[in-house]
Amino acid sequence: MRKVGIVGVGEYLPDKILSNLDLEKMVDTSDEWITTRTGIKTRRLVSPNQAASDLAVNAARQALREAGILAADVDLIIVATISPDMQFPSTACFVQRTLGARNAVCFDVSAACAGFVYALVVAQQFIACSTYKNALVIGSEVLSSITDWQDRNTCILFGDGAGAAVLAPVTSGGILSTYLGSDGLLSDLLMLPGGGSRNPTTHQSIDKRLHYIKMRGNELFKLAVKIMTDAAQEALRRAGLECKDIDCVIPHQANTRILLNMAKRLGLPAEKIYLNIDKYGNMSSASTAIALCEAAKSNHIKRGNIVLLDAFGGGLVWGACVIKW
Ligand code: UT7
């Protein structure tokens, strides 16, 4: 099996900023409540003509440039998203079309907030087995299109954005271990019930607001702390490493309190957890991808560092990955 590493990263955040003060004018909430309960101050929103693939293409171009790979030479494109351009074709196919990546095999992965880690692991398998020589993995979300802007329990949380990574064989370091998990018994805690074959879109489904994210946040909170802690430990065990070996954790950004609780349980200083939720909120699959890109570009992670990706979301699904950067 070939060693696989990340050889380029990219990100794209739309320009429009929605602050907590803006939200105070939309629902019964306050900057103080949102800041203390979640850590979020602002989030980004797309302009009306931007879909998930548009965000994804911008992040992908940056990642490909850094990797020194031309679009025409990309073998595989996987987009992790729960807010695709359309039910089908896949958002990955739209990305292929815009990039001109005519030789790539393209598909989407649906694993909610763990989507980027799931997609990384899928791509890693293909490269490790020598099926493909490179892969473009993207987490891209336009969560504003599936957010109920009248529901204060959820609308304060989400934002739009995309992050990308290029995977290729490496001679040393790279992905040291991976761990994925799922529990469909807990699918009721976080879902978008409308628009699929269970509840096709009708006037009635729209009146019931089934086309928006439904979340039981408080129950998820406790599970997130436990599952993200366990996932980190399992990925480290598989890499033959311990918590003290970690230089930086790049987690899915759902809530600052979840992440600080996880750090405490792992015995890690809070400074080792990379946080950007204050700027962008929760962007589902894009959160981990963008955090990874920003951590790399701002030198929070340097060559040779041990980096842990750790994500959790609706499904339930979770995934962790240890990388020697
Ligand atoms: O992305 C991956 C999966 N997602 C997660 O892991 C999210 C996990 N959950 C969370 O981050 C938190 O549960 C939330 C931030 C969503 C909510 O925080 P919480 O501390 O769990 O609050 P809560 O849902 O228990 O609500 C506490 C109170 C309630 O009022 P009462 O019943 O105590 O009077 C809510 O109605 O806060 C109220 N509340 C709000 N108040 C002001 C809920 N949303 C708001 C709001 N502004 N936006």
In a few lines, what is going on in this structure?
By secondary structure, the chain is of the alpha/beta class. The protein has helices at 20-24, 31-38, 52-67, 91-99, 115-128, 152-155, 203-207, 217-239, 256-266, 277-280, 285-297, and strands at 4-12, 16-19, 42-45, 76-80, 105-109, 135-142, 160-169, 174-182, 190-191, 214-215, 248-251, 306-313, 317-324. The longest helix is centred in the last third of the chain and has 23 residues, at 217-239.
Secondary-structure topology with pairs:
Layout: E1 4-12, E2 16-19, H1 20-24, H2 31-38, E3 42-45, H3 52-67, E4 76-80, H4 91-99, E5 105-109, H5 115-128, E6 135-142, H6 152-155, E7 160-169, E8 174-182, E9 190-191, H7 203-207, E10 214-215, H8 217-239, E11 248-251, H9 256-266, H10 277-280, H11 285-297, E12 306-313, E13 317-324
Helix pairs in contact: 3-4, 8-9
The structure holds oxa(dethia)-CoA.
- Helix proportion: 25-40%
Q: What structural class do helix, strand and pairing data support?
A: alpha/beta
- For this structure, what is the CATH homologous superfamily of the largest domain? Thiolase/Chalcone synthase
What about the largest sheet? 5 strands, mixed
The first-to-last residue Cα distance is 19 Å
Count of separate DSSP helical elements: 11
Model regions low in confidence, pLDDT < 50 over at least 5 residues? none
Query: Order of SSEs, N→C?
Result: EEHHEHEHEHEHEEEHEHEHHHEE
Round the mean pLDDT to the nearest integer and report it.
98
Sheet with most strands: strand arrangement: 1-7-6-4-5
User: Which term fits the overall shape?
Assistant: globular
The CATH architecture of the largest domain comes to 3-Layer(aba) Sandwich
CATH-defined topology of the largest domain: Peroxisomal Thiolase, Chain A, domain 1
Q: What fraction strand?
A: 15-25%
Report the count of strand segments: 13
In this entry the ligands are:
oxa(dethia)-CoA
